[in-house]
Amino acid sequence: MSDQQYIWMDGKMVKEQDANVHVLTHSLQYASGIFEGTRSFTAKKGTAIFRLKEHTHRFFNTAKIAHMTLPFTEQQINTATIEVVRKNKLGDSYIRPFGYYGVKGVGLTNPVKYPKVSVAIAAFYFARYLEKKGGLRCKISSYRKVSSSMLSPRAKLSANYMGSLLASLEAKDAGYDEAILLSESGHVTEGPAENIFMVSEGTVVTPPSSANILMGITRDSIIRIAKDLGFAVEERNIHREELYTCDEAFFTGTAVELEPIVSIDKRKTGDGKIGPITKRLSDTYSQALRGQKKEYEKWLTYV
Fold first, then answer.
1. What is the pTM of this model?
2. 99, 129, 104: which is closest to 8 by C-alpha?
3. CB-count burial class (<10 Å; 0-12, 13-18, 19+) for 30
4. Which terminus of the chain faces fewer neighbouring Cβ atoms within 10 Å, N or C?
5. In whole angstroms, what is the distance from residue 98 CA to residue 102 CA?
């Protein structure tokens, strides 16, 4: 890692301390920004970014949903992402592209009157999110997951994550490690920043796209790995009670990778230990991230 860190801003590499915006920037005032998150890893053949093209494509889909026109192509953002990781001499890192209205001033009409969109990409060392020896203790949140009738759960909109923040703070204030959110209909959706899976009688189960979830790229990776390992996979609605009685459970996500859940609302998940299917999926996924599984080599973009 370089001592001097750089951030890519609108086509230029800028020193971290110079990567500034005005305090009245529209996207700071009104949460009108969009973002993405991916990771790089020290892999078998060098530093590699995990599923870069898929993450960038989702970034552009989020922009479309947000009625935001990004002034770059997907290929330009891919190239810029590689440049940021290389410039900062990073191995394991978290990468954050961010699209925002850089105009200053208050008033919701600013993006309409001044349609210029800026893009910044930062990359920095980031320890694995939520990692806890022995697994996580989770709480079903009193906050409900935002639905597509209000904001799009499929888009990584800055505004979406206020509810997630409140749910996570509520859980941690109550002595838990993380929250689990339900939909307005009472079905399980996801964690504040993670997709959720459970294992029941050998079947790997996760909420479907219709459950107001983010269509996680790590989620997709785990589904593919589970099927490759011969496990049955179901995408269906999950009731709260099923989480209480399942054999295993875990979160997935770019930041969290795969993190086991060992209790929910003070009820042990299975025997309260990390389950064998969870461990096998976690081990295989970790190997894929680091170029140790030839069948998943296509997921890696080397820097």
1. 0.95
2. 99
3. middle
4. N
5. 11
Q: 3.30.750.24, 3.20.10.10, 3.60.15.10, 3.40.640.10: which CATH number matches 136-289? A: 3.20.10.10
Q: Residue 141 in contact with residue 172, Cβ under 8 Å?
A: no
pLDDT on residue 61: 97
- B/e letters for 71-84, b = 16+ CB within 10 Å, e = fewer, are ebeeeebbebbbbb
Q: Higher model confidence: residue 213 or residue 107?
A: 213
Active site residues: 156
Quickly name the fold that domain 6-124 has: D-amino Acid Aminotransferase; Chain A, domain 1 (3.30.470)
Q: Do residues 56 and 20 touch, judged by C-beta distance below 8 A?
A: no
Any bridge partners for residue 180, and if so which? 140
For 98-151, the DSSP string reads: EEE---BSS-TTHHHHS---EEEEEEE--PPTT--TT-EEEEEEEEEPPPTTTS
CB 278 within 8 A of CB 258: yes
Select the more confidently predicted residue: 133 or 211: 211
pLDDT tens digit sequence for 93-135: 999 999 999 888 788 776 666 678 999 999 999 877 778 889 9
